[in-house]
Amino acid sequence: MDNDISRRTFAHVAGLGALSLAIPRGATAETEEPAPASPGRTFPKGFLWGTATASYQVEGAVNEDGRGPSIWDTFSHTPGKTVNGATGDVADDHYHRYKQDIQLMKALGVKGYRFSIAWPRVFPQGSGEPNPKGLDFYNRLVDELLANGIQPFATLYHWDLPQALQDDGGGWESRNTAEAFGRYAGYVAQHLSDRVKHFFTTNEFGAFVELGYGIGIHAPGLKLPPARFNQTRHHAVLGHGLAVQAIRANAKPGIQVGIAENMAICCPVIETPEHISAAERATRELNAQYMTVIQEGRYTDAYLERTGADAPKFTPADLKVISSPLDFVGINIYTATWIRADDSKLGFAVVPNPASYPHMLSPWLTIGPEALYWGPRNVAKLWKAKTIYITENGCSSSDVPAADGKVYDTDRVMYLRNYLTQLQRATADGVPVKGYFCWSLMDNFEWADGYTNRFGLHYVDYQTQTRTPKLSADFYRETIRRNGVG
Ligand code: NOJ
Question: Can you tell me which atom of ligand 1 is nearest the CA of 260?
Fold first, then answer.
């Protein structure tokens, strides 16, 4: 066995030697012009490259400047809820280090930063009196981004619900939370829309409702019975619609409003017409409770049939609010759901991944680059979306610094290169994707997984708060420089 390994290692090194001999004298990699992207691998001119983070995952400073507690403070401080009892108390200390972090973005060459606003900083009790000091942080952040040529893309809800709203009426289970969300969104739009031109209402219903109120592995840690759970789903999309309306009513002219949703990305198992149309049908049905009702203003018949007596209670007026027109659709894409045609009533079947299916460090993060092709393509085709952003994409990796201090995350580079190749294919086919936000700028608090699963382009040493670009940061910088897959 040992012999076998050393033979292979030798062959590998010998191969490298042969390669270096092939470089002509005087034309070392350092002296050559950087390679352009090959024709056919470039993105449209003006394509927006960005990175993303979220308040509770990076900010820290949970007790500063009047911030109220959120459901994630409560949940992460409850023993046994996060790996190693991790909390976001300090996280990346972005609240104090945002200027330095903006320099990391600048060095990458990104032109967009997607961040989220912590509702309990702005309204510590969720509703009622605003806290101007809380909003001031975002004023400082936005000013610093603009001064560095980076456009701010603000998400209003990335899961840190004010605890007071959970205590009073059960958070998203209550219609009051949806209404309070609308008021908070309007207030933020009124104060930031002179400089922030893109707002996302919510991030990933598919996570905060399903995991938080359905299976209880995220805050607030509930497992509601089906009827109450479906009503919670309904109140969440209603909150989105109320926020869209409040943003439009309170913002300066010229802003754009959208969503960032982790819909099920339905990809045909084989690219034949029958499987392609099955994947389109599946896109509507598997996203019926969130994206489809937002886009179409109705729950699909199959969803209502499936939920039966436990279906949500709603009015036609609710559906109108929920389907308030959007300026763009943001999709968070990590994995593919493989779909095949079949002759069932719905006309499709989900093909489960076999046990040997490859994934990144997080077991749920199965590899399916084609999701970056079929996701936006199906959204554009089904709902005539004219502007699509990939609001998150990225992966976890084991990320151990090498002797020279660098993290050589070749697995993340492999992941990004393959996914971006499929995104480029989408833009080349005319799918209107206007930008891409890599998750994440830097390692951060990965919810229930604590600090064990790193997703950053920059490695964070949590003892010293040092940020070090990984190999994937170099790859992303080169991608941006070429405006093409490298
Ligand atoms: C999606 C979520 O929006 C983000 O908060 C999370 O860290 C990434 N997925 C990775 O799991």
Answer: 3
